[in-house]
Amino acid sequence: MIIGTRGSDLALAQATKVESMLAEKGVKTTRKIIKTTGDTFTDRPLHEVEGVGAFVRELDDRMLEGEVDIAVHSMKDLPTLRPETMSTSAVLERDSPCDVLLTTDGSTLEELPELAVIGTTSMRRRAQILRYRPDLDVQDLRGNINTRIRKLKDGLYDGILLAEAGLQRMGWEMVVQRLNTDDFCPSANQGTIAVVTLSGSEAEKATSMLDHEKTRIETGIERIVVADIEGGCTAPVGSFTEFVNDEELHVLAEVLSLDGTMQVRIDEIIPLENYEEHARRLAREMVAMGGKELVQRAVCQLSNKML
Ligand SMILES: NCc1[nH]cc(CCC(=O)O)c1CC(=O)O
Questions:
Q1: Of the CATH numbers 3.40.190.10, 3.40.710.10, 3.30.200.20, 3.40.50.720, which one belongs to the domain with range 2-92+192-211?
Q2: Distance between Cα 74 and ligand 1 center (Å)
Q3: Structure confidence at residue 52 (pLDDT)
Q4: Is 246 helix (H, G, I), strand (E, B) or coil?
Q5: What is the CATH code of the structural domain delimited by 223-303?
Q6: Mind telling me the catalytic residues?
Q7: Does 2-92+192-211 match 99-178 in CATH topology?
Q8: Which of 7, 98, 212, 294 has its CA 20 to 30 A from that of 74?
Q9: Per-residue pLDDT tens over the stretch 134-170
């Protein structure tokens, strides 16, 4: 079976992980690297790259054309709406869902001086760090993980924000500050690898052995809760769910204004029983509290270059 993947180091590390998990189950695979729109326009801020799911669409197309059997994605990059003939055949057990702060001199978020320059392209990370430290200077930081770390080392920033899972998958052991999920609610599905196949295919059957049920439930809730307000993984929207015991889940979700001064937030323990119903109710509450308007305003502000 052919595994399709993007060519970035992070994508290759994720594909390698799935390849070795499949090899353990006796499934032989070969690899094919696919260039995507999201990889082509690395000089432009992510929100300017056309449409949501730029990293995913080309791989979907190659699969629909029969060129690849299995695609491996960071699940947080998978758009809410998926082609009907395609299946998320496996959700792997989640790695760290947290964001981390990397600084040039090892300062923590609390120790950074006023007006320290923080790099991130994510509207969510911008809003959350400004909520915590309104005096910081947040600047755009585009590029894959390697580029972003190089720009930090080049002295263009005092600190940058990244997903811890990305660093772990690259095998880099760096001194970082892990940010708590309460103040820095992660993006829906952060830290999770998804395996995609055609529905009803042999590949679907083979890869479904890798599915981790608890992670599938957690990530499913994260998606439902923000489904009605979502604007992609770069919108100022966080959604994080985790089991607190075998029967209950902690659901946290929020939308922020770009400057972090306004927020719509839910924070609730729900039962595993009927979890989808609870998640849909919470999604309606997010909308009723004005979450949609907050996202739309942030997206408008950014595209008008009001920053
Ligand atoms: N949007 C890019 C992206 N997609 C997935 C990851 C990291 C791995 C993950 O969250 O699963 C990253 C990098 C980052 O956010 O720093």
A1: 3.40.190.10
A2: 7
A3: 53
A4: coil
A5: 3.30.160.40
A6: 77
A7: yes
A8: 294
A9: 999 999 998 888 999 999 999 999 999 999 999 999 9
For 247-282, b where at least 16 C-beta lie within 10 A, e where not — what string?
A: eebbbbbbbbbbbbebbbebeeebeeeebeebbbeb
The ligand 1 atom at the shortest distance from the C-alpha of residue 77 is 4
For ligand 1, pick from 5, 8, 10 the residue to mutate: most ligand atoms within 8 Å of CB: 10
Q: Above 60 in pLDDT, residue 125?
A: yes
More confident residue, 303 or 220: 220
Is ipTM > 0.90 here?
A: yes
Please identify, by atom number, the ligand 1 atom nearest to the C-alpha of residue 165. Answer: 8
Give 119 Cα–ligand 1 centroid separation in angstroms: 15
- Using a 6 Å cutoff on CB, does residue 77 contact ligand 1? yes
- Give the burial string for 199-225 (b: 16+ CB within 10 Å, else e): eebebbebbeebebeebbbbbbbbbbb
- Span from the CA of 295 to the centroid of ligand 1 (angstroms): 20
